[in-house]
Amino acid sequence: MDSNKQNKSGFSFADDLMVDITGALFPGLMFIVILFISVVIPLMIYDDSQIFTIKEISGSQWWVILIILLIVSYVVGYIFCRADVIEPDKKDIKRRIKEELNKGRKKYRKNLLYKEIETELREQIRAFLITLRNYEVKLTSAKETQKENNDVDIYGVLTKNCKKVVEEGIVLNRDYPSELLSILFPEEVRTISNKSNTDTADNELSYRNLNNNIRQSLEEYREYICSTKHEVIDEPTLKLIVCSCVLNIQSELGCLNTRNCTFPYVYYYKYLLKRNLTDYLGEVKWNNYNTRSKNIINDYKIEIQLFAPDAYALIRKNESHIRMSSSTWHMAQPLKWISGLMSIIMFVALLLNYNSYTPWSFGCCLGFHTLFYGSFISFIVPFSMLVFLTYIQQRITLFIHYQRMREIFYTISIYDDYKDIIKDKKKVKSDQKNYNVNVHESKLYLV
Fold first, then answer.
1. Is the pLDDT higher at 288 or at 166?
2. Stated pTM of the model
3. Residue 140: its pLDDT value, please?
4. What is the 3-state secondary structure (H, E, C) of 68-125?
5. Do residues 407 and 315 make contact, with C-beta atoms less than 8 angstroms apart?
6. CA angle at 45 for the pair 41 and 47, rounded to the nearest 5°
7. What are the pLDDT digits (tens) for 195-206?
8. Residue 258: CA count within 13 A, CB half-sphere
9. How far is CA 145 from each of CA 136, 237, 301, 352, rounded to the nearest angstrom?
10. Alpha-carbon distance 271 to 46, whole Å?
């Protein structure tokens, strides 16, 4: 037993060390190296000077420099590691939303008929309905959770309105169809239910009942889709295209816009529905903006780490990748400004020394003989760092949202698999605690 505990503590220490190294040390070390390349090296080349001579540094001094470099790198990197992941996440979400809206814009350019758009949208909703019906029994506990936390059965509203759209079609009018709004934003049904005593499932949303954030997004998406033409095709078709884009955005990204895209995402349950992963719907307890909280996911992680530590390694690995990506993105932000400033300064020096023919000793060893070439190299070095940092940031914003969505899935999937074990261990621990309290009280009584 002791050896097992030592092994587990060793693995835990290794996991923590991995997160610290990938999330803090690497980005911090990269920050110092790129800062040195972008600022110090161009000045050394331009001034034809050497700050220190490598031959004069002894072996012990190299160890001191290395230790100081690692400490400073970790401290600097930790600052970037603690920065909010939401900033690069927003960049990725904004890019993905634009991709979905461009698909809607293509439909708009083709002047597709209302019936064609309705048929495509009904097929999407039919798939939702089939998924909901197939898992009706398993959704019972999820529905009960919804009633406890949100005062509205979101899955019940979804099932009812999906069935209505599939069987009766979509009612043609110039406003957003109410049955579609109830599918897109079932959490908003509570706004109506608070004003009436009728069952929430019998209520339908209208555009004016939606909150300002949702209305603003719908109008923004509508303007974006029809911005390429002066004339507007029939309004019902345009709004149907907007609803189709919104459903795709929610099902792919778990959120509606970049203003409300905090982790974990409100519409993550639609991400699961689209992929027929409704086994985990019962663990998704954040289906509106009032109940959305990162503490729910953190609570799952804590319980997994305490009662199923072997399974936590997979979550920790994914989390370390996210932290490293986020801290690298934040590290590149100030360095871009520094590299850009140094590029401008050296470019001005390049122009001033365009006709200069002063001998340049450092340039001689490279085959150059004028100060102009020194200014040119001093400009190229920080400029190349600027291009490199811009490329890094763009690449990170291509995958970081996917990583965060996978973090949620890993957490709820592992928690769902181990929840019976976790409950049993928690019960044993609680019973042991109560036993110890009773023993302590009995000893006090005897005294």
1. 166
2. 0.81
3. 60
4. HHHHHHHHHHHHHHCCCCHHHHHHHHHHHHHHHHHHHHHHHHCCCCHHHHHHHHHHHH
5. yes
6. 115
7. 444 444 445 678
8. 16
9. 14, 37, 20, 71
10. 55
